[in-house]
Design goal:
Elements lengths: L12 E6 L3 H12 L4 E7 L5 H8 L3 E5 L7 H11 L4 E6 L4 H9 L4 E4 L4 H12 L13 H10 L6 H4 L4 H11 L4 H8 L3 H15 L4 H10 L4
Parallel strand pairs: 1-2, 1-3, 3-4, 4-5
Length: 226
């Protein structure tokens, strides 16, 4: 007699969704519940009972809106990862600031999903996190957020600039940007091409997760490690 071995049952990813906008919450829940390997075991508007919900529902993943009106997302993330280390917390945000990246990494989050992410990226992030991967939006890979997470995991206490892998040339250019020099002036000062300076400035913007030269200058003046 031939015994046919059945495939082991697929593990269903249990998800707790915390999002204060009802329409968005219901839409995300419907999307997740349409997947064979996922289910939303609870969904709420973040009314301060998140820890109790996790304790009761035992989710594998908590999807947490970082912009909750009734709850501080970062403090909640920190409380969750401390009390429930086996539960993965994924932050959801529209335009996270540099400070958001820092706080989310230090709070122990497993990843970040931008709210304008595609459905494929959204669902893929959840699956990857459950497999044990720290996941970032593609645009943030190698940025300040990813490096702060690695930095926080090692429990090092250095300045932020030491958690960001800046090249020697980028470190030379940032103070000149802070002094208000143009790309052309920086190129003349360093004896390189304007194109090279533009490339380094673009790289620095991405690594620091900022959007303007003024923000780079602010970072420089606020970080004592430079």
């Amino acid at each position: 007699m031939i015994h046919v071995l059945e495939d082991p049952p697929m593990k269903t990813i249990r998800i707790l969704l915390i999002e204060d906008y009802r329409i968005l919450r219901e839409s995300i829940a419907a999307m997740i519940n349409g997947e064979a390997d996922m289910t939303v075991v609870g969904a709420s508007g973040g009314n301060g009972d998140t820890l109790l919900q996790v304790r009761t529902l035992s989710p594998h993943v908590v999807l947490l809106d970082l912009g909750l009106r009734n709850q501080n997302g970062m403090r909640t993330t920190e409380a969750l990862t401390k009390e429930f280390p086996e539960t993965n917390v994924i932050g959801m945000g529209l335009i996270p600031s540099q400070q958001d990246f820092i706080e989310l990494g230090e709070a122990g989050a497993s990843g970040l999903i931008l709210k304008d992410a595609s459905i494929e990226v959204f669902l893929g992030t959840i699956r990857s996190v459950v497999r044990g991967t720290k996941v970032l939006p593609p645009a943030l890979a190698g940025s300040l957020f990813s490096q702060v997470i690695e930095h926080a995991q090692k429990k090092e206490k250095g300045k932020l600039v030491n958690a960001v892998r800046m090249t020697k040339r980028e470190r030379e250019i940032i103070p000149l940007i802070a002094d208000g020099l143009s790309n052309k002036e920086i190129a003349q000062r360093l004896n390189v091409s304007t194109y090279t300076v533009k490339s380094h400035v673009h790289s620095a913007l991405e690594k620091l997760s900022v959007h303007s030269r003024l923000q780079i200058a602010t970072f420089f003046h606020n970080d004592e490690a430079f």
